[in-house]
Structure formats: C-alpha cells, structure tokens
Write the structure tokens for this entry.
Amino acid sequence: MQGASLPRAAWLAALSRLEGLAPAIALAELRMLRRHHAHPEHGLDLQALREILLCAQSLNLYGVEDADLAGELWLALWENAKRCLDEERLRVSGWFGRRSQHQLALLLALMSAWLLLREYVKSYAPLPQGFWLHCHGLFREMAQRSWQGRRPIGGEGALGAWYRRVLLLGLCSCNRLDGVNQIRLMQWICRYGPLLKLSPQGRTSGGWLIAERVDGPGRFAAESDGEEGISWRADAEKVLRRILSGLQRQADAAAGDWMLLSRLEREWRHPPRRRHIRQSLHNGETAVLLGKFDSCWRLASGELALGESASRLEIGNLSASGMRLAGDFSDQDLQAGSLAMLKRQGSSWQLGVVRWICLPRNGELADCGVEFVGKRPAAVLVAPHSSHPSGGLEKGLLLCAERQFQQRGVLVLPGRRYQALRLFEVRQGEQAWQVRAQRLLLQTSACQLMEVRLAEPHEAEAKEGR
C-alpha cells in the first residue's frame, strides 16, 4: 500500500479501527488526528501531516493489538512525509520564506521515520526497503545546509537530534529484546539519543561505521579497514554515561534496567561475535517447538501429551548453543525472552530461550533463534521464603546436571522472584529441598533463570525457627 495514494476515506477508516482496538490511546488525540487527517484524495499536505505527527508521538503503540493496521498507518505517514519533502525541494529555493517550510518537511520526515521504526521494532518486522537510504540522505541534506541544530517546531527538538534517535535505535539488536525492554530502550533513546556523536570517518578509526549509500543503519569494525563509502562514525559513549548516571540516581532501579544497560554497553562498544560455528541445514529437517511457560511446565510434568499444541518448524541452522527455526509459530505467543520446549527427531525435549524473532509482513515465513538452556527440565513447585506466611506454591522448572537434584542447578520461574541469597523451598513429587539463589543468569519480562545451591542444614533450620 502506498501511503501517498490513501484517500480520505481510507485514513478515516484506519484511524477508526485503530481507536477501536486501542482503548489505552487517548480518544481526544485520535479525534484531533481525524480533524487533520488528509488533503482530499491527494494524501496529506504539510500542515495536516504536522498535526498528525505531533499527536502520533504520544500514542501508546503497545496498546494497539492489530500490528498490521498500525504498520499500515505509520508506513502511510512515512510515505506522505517523503512526498511532502520532495514537493518542498521542487519549489523555488533560496527564499527565506520557503527555507522554514523545507526545514519543517525534513523534521516531519524524520519524525515519521521514528514512528515507523518504533512500530517495526515492536512487531519484530524487517524494515521497508530503502528506509535507511532515506534516513541517511536526510542527514546528509541537513548537514550540507548546516541545519542540524534547527528546530522547525520549537518543543520537538533539533533536526540532527531526530536523526540520531533513529540511527541509535537502528544500531540496537531490538529483535533480541522483549516488549518491556523495548519500551525502556526507546525511553532512554528519546531522552539521551541526541548525545550520539557523529564524526567524519577520516578523522577516526573503527567503531560503528555509517555508509549513506547502504540500506542499513551501520556496521561495526574493530578498526578502520579502509573501505570506501563510509560517511560517518557513530560513538555512543556519552549516551551510555548518561544512562548510567540516571540509574545510579535511582534508589529503586530494577535489575532488568541494569541488565539492559550491560547489553547496550556490549552492543555499542564492541558487539559480541558468534561463539559457535553454525551448521547450515536447509535439508527439510524439522523440530517441534512449544511456547508459553505454563505449557512448558505441563509438558515437563507429563500433563501435556507430547507434541500437543506444538508447532513443527524447519531447522535453518544448528550450533552447540542453539538453532534457527522457520515456519508458522503464531500459536506459541513468542517474543524475545520467551521460554520454549524443543525436540528434534530422535532427541528428547530440552528447554530453550527465544533470543531473536523476525516476523515479515510480506507473507514470508517467520523465523527465530532459540538458545539451548538445558535438557530434561523437571516440573517443580516453588515457594519463596518471605515474611508473608500465606505465600503459596508456584510453578517452576529445575535444571541440573544429574538425573536428580543434588547440590546445584538452575531454577526457572515466571515473574521476578530473584533476590541475592534468597531461600526457596522446591518440591518435586514427594521430595523437597531448601535452596538458596546464588546468581541471576537471565531475566526477561517472561521469566528468570537463577543459579541455586542446596542450602546448608543450619540455614534451613534458622529459617524455620523464625
């Protein structure tokens, strides 16, 4: 669908459906969108687009259940913004009166690109072809005219700041983040993204290198390799320092925020390389995948028949640490950070964590990467010791090297139960253990994986005597 050709009726219908599917979005904002929707039959004019984008900035994208509809809306706004900018470029240049309109068109093109990128990040979809070529071209245009610091709409930030936000979000592996971390990341980038340093490549070496004629955000190089076509180098050190400073000032900063910052430090300073060789298969071999924590627990406990409600997916590649799967897994409600049970032909079930997801909008097969966590997960019931005696048992999964739990293992729980050295009671059938949390291995919005050890007898006795 080409947004520039969307007639007035289509805009009204899309906004009406969006309002109906997103009760969390303020109705007043959407009514304002309607009042400034479109120039009849010819897409949006510059002023109408300005009003829509100013309102759209505050929409709660995570309240919109219909991802395809939201994607259509933001794609249409982006296409209209590009058309408005092209029209401004064709007008008589050099007049002061038109210069402000040109700057406004640049700003709206960047604002619409930010909205579109946010939606595609949220839905784990690959971006439209040409997205990054367009964004890099906008930055080149404003840099040549010395407009990076211009603010066509006073409270909406400078032109250069918007490009830096878009670029910095593009440099993140957002398809490896769950929804909670995506929202947190976007909040940080909105606030601190303008601090991203962009410098000509000739004056520096290595780091994130941006090529304006490449349809991608950039690539990382440990040191300058002399490749031609590199336009800028991006340095996020100031951004990282400000995020760190902000967390240090928060007395109640969540462990998940610190883990997200640690991830960003690795990605923006020196992205990790693959640890294991991938074996490309593409020979038709398949694996069965079952998502959702409760389903994984029921399968491990024997309550769920083998393969019931699971999806059969084709294995794209395989390594010692995980596998890439392609196919339809829409029934599994997967997102980055979700737990999943996996089974290849001739192998037993094992537990994994979804590390990344790609959900194309063009009918192609979805695919995901799953990291192996451990074999033979045991379904257990867990009660964290606390000052509230009414605390009940909850479902958990226990992984250990031995057939039966002996001294150490990995406890998997939904939610956020981890506290350093916290004591848990773990039950499996007639057996029960007192274990102590040693280290948080992984935290997502769906679950926590923590290393636990068997509590010493005097530790359990002291707890019981309180």
About this structure: The radius of gyration is 25 Å. Residues 378-464 form a domain with the Thrombin, subunit H fold (CATH 2.40.10.220). Residues 12 and 292 are 37 Å apart (CA to CA). Confidence is low (pLDDT under 50) at residues 1-8, 22-42.
